[in-house]
Amino acid sequence: MRETFAANFSERGDIGASAAVTIDGKLAVDLWGGWRDAEKTFPWQRDTVTLTASTTKTMTALAALLLADRGELDLDAPVARYWPAFSQNGKRAVTTAQCLGHTAGVPGWSEPMAPEDLFDWQKCTTLLAREAPWWAPGTASGYHALTQGYLVGEVIRRITGETPGRFFAREFAEPLAADFHIGLPQECDARLAPTIPAPDPNEVPPAPGSIAHRVGTNPDFQKVKNWVEFLRAEIPAANGVGNARAVAQIQSVLATGGEGVGRRILSREGAMRVLTQQSDGVDRVFASPVRFALGYALALGPLKFGRGRSCFWGGAGGHLIVVDFEERMTIAYVMNKSVGVPFGDPRNRAIVNAVYESLGQK
Hints:
Blueprint: H1 2-10, E1 16-23, E2 26-34, E3 49-51, H2 56-69, H3 96-100, H4 121-130, H5 147-160, H6 164-173, E4 181-182, E5 192-193, H7 211-217, H8 227-232, E6 240-242, H9 244-255, E7 259-260, E8 263-264, H10 268-272, E9 281-282, E10 289-292, E11 297-300, E12 310-315, E13 319-324, E14 329-335, H11 346-358
Parallel strand pairs: 3-5
Antiparallel strand pairs: 1-2, 1-14, 3-6, 4-6, 7-8, 9-10, 10-11, 12-13, 13-14
Helix pairs in contact: 2-5, 2-6, 4-5
């Protein structure tokens, strides 16, 4: 895996990155290298962190799974049980499980949204409470790229009285001593590796007016101007900051059946519940077949990992986290040079392939 990681820099264009593997909750591989900046003046250090984009969704999902395991959240109950205003406009029966599985039918906002509106929790959630479903909830998935974090996060906030980022920090990041933040503290700024944007991807843009176009342009996430304020905000679907070590350590709670740092965090049943399938069909945003579980994917097109039970997700640019229950293993890759979508990225696929080849799996 070390050789493959080095080849990502020499052959696949990486600038700064980290990769990690846990087995039985313990770090088996912990790699980092390259540069924090595009000019290659500041080395990527052991404690360097960067924006992990939608990898954040897996952290928010863990927080919801924990509340469900404690009996404080019924994932199959209507969201409106915890957030009464959400029952408006045909959403009375929408469940938190549907929000986690991208089948709630609320993948975006109909009201025009500026990028900076993402920093306004009250506005984002109030408008989502008023939103009418874009399709019949529960009948199909449509990737809730930004809204998932506000939907699940507001349920967490209503139950706990804490913001989702603070609840996640108290229950996962701090006990596990994992350097991952939903809402970046100022004292971490000196360790931050800024995201290096992808070149023009030469992809055919979604048709104007399509669900994918509406999700991707309202608001246009790429047009955020105040990145400091963006990082300070809590956007539980998109702005988590960390490195591969932290991602792998936190997600190992699932891979080990609920254990972390020598103590039980989730019951085994609570950890395995993440695999509960929510959808199986062509996603209305990705326009590709996806099998979604609770906050993670079980398969995306032909993409699946390991020989048995596993789940995964990633973040725009190439970030990836794989949770393999059969091997009690997590594989994480986090980098600063964005190349587009995370699935099919040659860098993260090379890392994952190297891990499985070392286990005798092709």
